[in-house]
From TrEMBL:
Gene3D superfamilies: P-loop containing nucleotide triphosphate hydrolases. Residues 1-65 form the Helicase ATP-binding domain. Keywords: ATP-binding, Nucleotide-binding. SMART domains: HELICc (SM00490). GO terms for cellular component: chromosome; cytoplasm. GO terms for molecular function: 3'-5' DNA helicase activity; ATP binding; four-way junction helicase activity; nucleic acid binding. Its EC number is 5.6.2.4. Residues 101-246 form the Helicase C-terminal domain. PANTHER family: DNA HELICASE RECQ FAMILY MEMBER, RECQ HELICASE, PUTATIVE (AFU_ORTHOLOGUE AFUA_6G14720)-RELATED. This is DNA 3'-5' helicase. It catalyses: Couples ATP hydrolysis with the unwinding of duplex DNA by translocating in the 3'-5' direction. One of its GO terms (biological process) is double-strand break repair via homologous recombination. The keyword Lyase does not apply. It comes from Cryomyces minteri.
């Protein structure tokens, strides 16, 4: 043995692209590893082709130095769904509807698990309290214990921030619900990708309130806003197959026309209506959502 370093492996390398300043400042130090003059292996399941050059730049690589190996990222066993709650009523009624929907999905997934994502710690805590489950976020006390209980099935539902987005490989997560609009399509792909890792039929639901008007997130760039909006509402407000948007962004695949044979249908291709009836009660809407999935 030469006692020399053989290679350096960086997993989840897409986080180097994080736009969160405090995160980015530390991660960009990884580029200094080039000084080790050994092979570097970068791994990720979510690096859009359009972001490759930016990653190389932040890692201080020349494009010619990099050999890229890609495989398709499409999750064929996950059914994607967007539910518009703008017609449900006031904010409290909207949250009530979403909570009932989550409970219905939880009851319908057998021994499987459910992950609910929220953008703020306050909302995570509120939803966790309503659902009677653990809240997982960056500053949560006993984070490891919370995740352990969820992994082992002692708790089958959890509410979390994106702190639960990476490095979580739990096979039997059946439903992912994004209560808030994802900040980036990359975040959404990463987080919804927690579903169905055992290959069984699973579902990723994104809740959208198209009545929010001038909704903005200070951490969101205009490019990210447009991508998320395209996934949620399609082009010019006309919904398109959810997989078209994901594949075009994550794999630069532009030949898809809809969900294909062997894939779980998204709500658009399956003809499932995602805009709620303003006149129906919360219970009736949840029943309609459950029936739509049968």
């Amino acid at each position: 043995a030469t006692q020399q370093l053989d290679r350096i492996v960086i997993d989840e390398c897409h986080v180097v692209l994080s736009r969160k300043y405090t995160f980015r400042k530390q991660l960009q130090q990884l580029g200094k590893l080039m000084m080790a003059e050994t092979q570097m292996v970068l791994l990720t399941a979510t690096l859009p082709p359009s972001e490759e050059e930016e990653l190389w730049r932040r890692m201080y690589y020349e494009k010619e130095q990099v050999k890229v190996f890609r495989a398709r990222t499409a999750r064929v066993n996950v059914g994607y769904r967007v539910i518009d709650v703008s017609g449900v009523g006031r904010q409290a009624e909207k949250e009530g509807f979403v909570l009932k929907l989550i409970k219905a999905r939880f009851e319908g997934c057998g021994t499987g698990k459910v992950v609910v994502y929220c953008n703020t710690v306050g909302r995570v805590k509120r939803f966790a309290e309503e659902l009677g489950c653990d809240a997982y976020h960056h500053h949560a006390i006993g984070k490891d214990s919370i995740l352990n209980d969820f992994t082992e099935g002692k708790q089958r539902i959890i509410v979390a921030t994106r702190a639960l987005g990476m490095g979580v490989d739990i096979p039997d997560i059946r439903v992912i619900v994004h209560v808030d609009r994802p900040r980036t399509l990359l975040d959404y792909a990463q987080e919804s990708g927690r579903a169905g890792r055992d290959g069984a039929r699973s579902e990723a639901i994104a809740i959208v309130d198209n009545g929010e008007g001038g909704w903005r997130d200070n951490e969101q760039t205009e490019k990210d806003r447009r991508l998320v909006e395209k996934y949620m509402r399609g082009k010019d407000g006309s919904a398109v197959c959810r997989r078209i948007v994901l594949d075009e962004y994550l794999d630069a695949r532009r030949v898809r026309v809809g969900c294909e044979e062997g894939e779980e249908l998204c709500d658009v291709c399956g003809g499932i209506v995602g805009v709620e009836d303003k006149e129906a009660t919360g219970e009736e809407r949840v029943e309609e959502e459950v029936e739509a999935e049968k």
